[in-house]
Specification:
With 500 residues, this protein is α/β, with parallel strands linked by helices. Helix content is 39%, strand content 12%. It is built from 18 helices and 17 strands. The strands form six sheets. The chain has a seven-stranded mixed beta sheet with strand order 4-10-9-8-7-5-6, sandwiched between helices. Helix 9 links the parallel strand 5 and strand 6. The protein is globular and about 75 Å long. The chain starts with 12 loop residues before the first helix and ends in a 6-residue tail after the last helix. 48% of the residues are buried. Bound molecules: pyridoxal-5'-phosphate.
Amino acid sequence: MLDEPIDLSGVCASFRRLQESPLLPAGDVGSAFPEAGELAGLFFADSDDVPVESSTLRSAAEQEFADTGYSRYSFLRDQPITYDGRETFDVQAIRKDFPILHQKVNGKDLIWFDNAATTQKPRQVIEAIARYYERDNSNIHRASHALAARATDGYEGAREKVRRFINAPSAEEIIFVRGTTEGINLVAQTFGRKLIQPGDEIIISTLDHHANIVPWQQLAKERSAKLLVIPVNDRGEVIPEAYESLLSPRTRIVSFAQVNNTFGTIVPAKTMIDMAKRYGARVLIDGAQSVAHTPVDVQDLDVDFFVFSGHKIYAPTGIGAVYGKKELLALLPPWQSGGNMIKDVTFEETIFNDPPHKFEAGTPNVADAVGLGAALDYVGRVGIQNIERYEHYLTEYARRALGQVDGVRLVGNPRERVSVVSFVLPNLPAPEVGKLLDQEGIALRAGHHCAQPALRRFGLEATVRPSFSFYNTTDEIDKMVEAVKKIANVAFSSHPNIRI
Ligand SMILES: Cc1ncc(COP(=O)(O)O)c(C=O)c1O
């Protein structure tokens, strides 16, 4: 057990300084906006809040970056890394719920450290899907028989579970999609196509996954808009001053990942949303890496869109959700069209259904929505706060242990981080390290993690990335660290010329 205090010193004071900067007059925003009459209401639906009192912003920032250090995630700061599993949940009992974990790979016990790519499924989720196909399978919404009613209840019940999990005001604000990628595309193609005009600006972050880069980049090209990118510092954190300087009356949407998938950076989403709102911009949060690791409350964030993938939170692949504020969804055009998304069709005209059905054309993925509902029930029973605390512990434990291995270079050192560690060995390509670890039964990601711009900011094309879940243990981390030590020794002695 490691017991030195963790150094998470330093406060991101610049965010607080930013709150002192003068507010933009609302008039400037309106005049730069081409369809101000029709659309200003959309951008200033909260027009009572514009201009926002700087004291309101200050208090939000102060809450986020409290005087003592670093927000609610600082519970590990200056404390020994200790954790008594009995305080919260029994990891061994949890592991029994995940059948896939109990197998040998290459003759060794499987260690699943590829959780940022996808999570394993508890038996409760597998059984919910099997039960659905054994008992309830039917198309939904349109038939009058018992199975259709049961399947519809299962699907709409899952929507309500998503609503509750992220604390959305209404289930009508939850759209089922295939996952985060499809969700961001949906917003880019509806919000973006309707509301982004030539010369408008879209802001994303250097830390973003390709799923939050490519759809906005393509949209910017199509609409002759500008794509602006928030830079990051050497720790792998967004630079607040740089973000502030990118915001302008032309900013239509700010879209960023709440948790980065390569360094585990927790981005100060609430403060960034507050700042965007000062310019009348809308905000999308990519929750792919946050939703399973930290509590999400879309009302507290006051975010316009929140998107996540089910498979990263113990649910099946092929299902995810978009939360969108009601007033926005009502104004947006449908994305795909066909059955299910209509109220009435003639050859001349179609009257669209109300949200969320307007955005769910065709037969939806009912079984996996049911599986998502079961996964959220499961996470709810364990408790997302308990999960967050334990995963922070695992992350800090792994960082420290890996950091002590000769030759290992940890990449990124964000002060607020969760679940992910990235490292390289100076003379062995990351994919080779991944293959060698696989020989030890350790599954992790070694590559560019669909975040090439983020890695290139650090002069790299690939890292080795173990990522943790609440079913992982420190014993597993110890085994990985031992294996990395062996690989580092061999790499140094026998491959002196190999360069990453
Ligand atoms: C931050 C982030 N955004 C988006 C995605 C894309 O998720 P999906 O492939 O489930 O659509 C990922 C997947 O790794 C991610 O980590």
